[in-house]
Structure formats: structure tokens, C-alpha cells
Amino acid sequence: MNILVCHKQEECDLEKFWKLESLGIDAKEQNDPDLAESIENYLQTSITKKNDKYITKLPWRENAPELPTNEDIAKRRTESVIRRLKKDPEMFRKYGEIITDQEQRGFIEKVYDESTCTNKVHYIPHHPVKKDSVTTPIRIVYNCSCRANDSSPCLNDCLATYPPIMTDLTEILVRFRMYKYAVTADIEKAFLHIELDVDDRDVTRFYWLENPMDTESRLITYRFKVVLFGATCSPFMLSATLMKHFRDNPSTTSTELQRNVYVDNVLTSFTDKQSLLKFYTESRKLLSEAGFNLRSWNSNSTELQNVAGRDKIGDNDDIVKILGMRWDRESDDLKFQQIEFMEKDKMITKQNAEWNYCPTDDNPADYLTRGIYAKHLYNNSLWMNGPQWILNRENWPTWTRKIEDCSTMVTVSDDNTDDESTNASTQTISCIDIQRYRSLEKAIRVTAYVLRFIQNLRNSKDKRSIGFISVEERCKALKVLIVTVQQETFKDEIESLNSLKA
């Protein structure tokens, strides 16, 4: 038997725990000079502005592995998504509307001539996710971590990732609670308002229907013209673009935004209403010059709520979701929401749980039960990633649980008769299918409890058996099981012997 013990995950969890514990109270780490230089170089060389729109390049890793096309797997997964959406016409309609809207707004484009492309080409699968949101009830998720096989890199593997370059989250939350008048807003579809450099667009290709509203339409190729949400570098590209815009347009408002923007969320506070209203006007103007739209304004100031409502960009909800927390504008409370994961009357038990079958060849758990060398387990694709069909529920193996016909009858003797006369004084009870149990021991216990239940129905309340199964009950249960098996196996012989007795 081989045992693999790995403490790497525990060490990572412990490190993450202490980082969270010291969040906001620990001294900031000194910036890596090389990292700072790399970020500054990206700001200067990879971000340009044209016609009030910023254009960015993907931050490719140095010596990145060769990126495969992923064309086959992307097409298969897209076809699978279409089959799933066919079962929910409303979901399919919304999905198609998003694709159509993105094309009309210039976020994506169709690729008509694929043969003349000289740039890197890569296809990205995608799927829908329902979201508890008023503004975006459903969104499309693009899987930039999809691999053609275990040894093949994904798009995210080839792109550089950087730490957050904007203000620390803790500092933003502290400033949000600092002054009397608080305000929140978010940038509408922030990633989709930053154009992607033409040379990088072909690595963001994906398949969808030529007519997004027709399930029978043929698949064609689309590609992104903007930064897509799904790549690990997308938050950095957004932050870098905003930082460049704020630096190129210095003002009190740009400084305020640079200090209080977290990804696409704005949170800050002011001492007086005049400063608050001034920020509302100037921040909208400043970001509109970069092609962004600030929406979903919320504040504990009635004046700002009225102005935002008049401009049709306000949010009238009393409870506002901000960065994983909930802010009550009326009571000015900031708290975490306690989620009731499951109603008490809907607790999952073994009786009502959904069971499915996993073939042995596709079951990674079987490697441990059979025994395997640790070095083989570490490099095993099935163990690391699971079976290929697990990604799509429609491809799961089907298993029909069969309830066998209850043809087996067992006999139970009355207390007034001894064990030898079991067959003389009998009553039939529902069958006990011993094939359902993995061990004889469990079959004996189940049978004993069934026999006790029958006997307790006959006895008065004061004579009923309770507690653990006794030795006598176990012996009787075993005898009943033996007799049952004999009656099934030697049915013809028993009938013949009984006829001779008669």
C-alpha cells in the first residue's frame, strides 16, 4: 500500500489565513523594483487612446509556451451548451440577446476570413451563469483556463499576472466609513469598454450561432474587440487603463477616484453635500472621456439619490451590495449577510439524495482503494482533473436504479412455538433483498429489526422490545435468511418433498 502525504495546500492555507488576519494592520510590503518597472513599461507602451477609447495589449509572459488553437474542444463545448440551452428557451433567448447586443455595441465581431490570419489563434469555450443581480440576471463566462489536454497550456498560462496596482481594499473600506456622506457606484461593463489591440484579438475567438436566436443556425467564429472578463490579466488591464487615465487627467476628482476605485466599484465618502454632488458630476464627466459610464449610484444623501434618480442612473435599494458586504443606507450599517444554506425541512438524507453511477475506469477514487504508487498518482490525469465528462452534466453516465420484484417471502415464528416449528406456524412479510447489502452482517441486522417490528405489532406496549438487537434476535434473523435462501434455491425440491409428505 502506498500513501501520499502532501502539506503544500496546508501551508498555502496557513499563509492565506495570516494574510487575512493582518489585513489592514500589517505594514505594506516593499514593491519589487523589477515588477514596478514592468508595470510602468506596460502603462507607457501597451495602452493608447484613440477617439475617446483606450486600446490595450495583452500582457504576454516572457518565454510563454506555444498556445494551441483549442478549436476542437471549444466547438464540442459550445455544441453542448446549445443542447443544454434548448431545454430552457428563455435562457437561450437571453443568451442570444447578450451575444447580439455585444455585437451591435462593438464588443465582439464575426470572423469572416479565417485563412488569412497571421496572428496567434486560440478558441475559448463559454457557458451561462445565472446571477442574482438586477442589472445582469445572466452573464456569459468565458473559460480562458480551458486546456486541450493535460500537457497543453491554456490562455491564462501564457498571460502575465500582476498584483493589484490600485489602492488596497482595506483602505478603501476605511475611507468609505470615514465621513458623514457615503456614496457607491460602479462602472458599467468596465472590461467591455477597453478595446483590445488588433494583433491580440484572434486569441479571443469563440464559436456561436450565426443567428444567435436560432438553435438550428450553423456555428461561426466570433472574436473579442475588447478586454474579455475571464482572463486572469483582465483586472490588471482595467486597473492599468484607469490609472493611466487618472494620471493623464490630474485633478482633485481623479485623485479621489484613483484612491477609491476597486476593480469597477467606486466607494468613498465626504464631509458635506456640496463636495458629494461635485464628485458626482465631475467623476461622471471624467470617466465618460475614457468611454466609461458610472451607474448604480447609491448614497445616504437624499439630494444625491434624487439627482441620480433624475438622471436614471440611481439605485433605490435600501440594502446595497458592496464588495461582498451589505450596506443599509437608512441605518448606515455595514455587515455581512448570513446565508441559510439549506432549509431545515429540506435537509438532504441518504433516502432523498441524488445518486449516480461512475464507471470504474473513470473513478479516480478507485486508485486509492486498489493501491497506487505516489509518483504515478501525482502525474495521473484522472486523479488531478477527474473524468472528461464531469464538465458537462449532459455527458454524465446514466444509472437506472432497479427495484427488484419482491418475490422472496420469509417466515416468522410466533413466540409460542419453538424454532423447529418455524415452518408450521408462519406469516409472510415483505421481502428483504439481501443483494442490496454489501455484508451478511448488515443483512442480519436489517432482518432482525424487521422481525422485531412485526413482533412488536403483535405485543402489547409493555412487552415490546427496544434498544439494541439481542443475540437471540440475531440468531433468529440469520435462520430466517438461511431458510429464505433455501426456499429460493431449492424451491422444486422442497415442493416435491412436501408433496410426498402429503
Task: List key phrases describing it.
about 500 residues, alpha+beta, HIV Type 1 Reverse Transcriptase, Chain A, domain 1, four-stranded antiparallel β-sheet, three-stranded mixed β-sheet, 16 helices, elongated
The major β-sheet equals:
4 strands, antiparallel
Q: Helices and strands: which structural class?
A: alpha+beta
Calculate Rg over CA atoms. 33 Å
- Tally of DSSP β-strands: 17
The level of helicity is 25-40%
β-strand percent reads 5-15%
Description of the structure:
The protein is α+β, with helices and mostly antiparallel strands. It is built from 16 helices and 17 strands. Helix 7 (234-248) packs antiparallel against helix 8 (252-260) and helix 14 packs across helix 15 (471-489). The chain starts with 7 loop residues before the first helix and ends with a helix. Residues 403-430 have low confidence and may be disordered.
Helices, strands, pairings?
Elements: H1 8-21, H2 33-45, E1 47-50, E2 53-56, H3 71-86, H4 89-104, E3 108-110, E4 126-130, E5 138-142, H5 155-158, H6 169-176, E6 181-187, E7 195-196, E8 205-209, E9 219-224, H7 234-248, H8 252-260, E10 261-262, E11 265-270, H9 273-288, E12 294-299, H10 302-310, E13 319-322, E14 325-328, E15 333-335, H11 365-370, H12 374-378, H13 381-385, E16 410-411, E17 428-429, H14 440-458, H15 471-489, H16 491-501
Parallel strand pairs: 2-7
Antiparallel strand pairs: 1-2, 3-9, 4-5, 6-11, 6-12, 8-9, 10-11, 13-14, 14-15, 16-17
Protein name: Reverse transcriptase domain-containing protein
Pfam family, one: RVT_1
InterPro entries: DNA/RNA_pol_sf, Rev_trsase/Diguanyl_cyclase, RT_dom
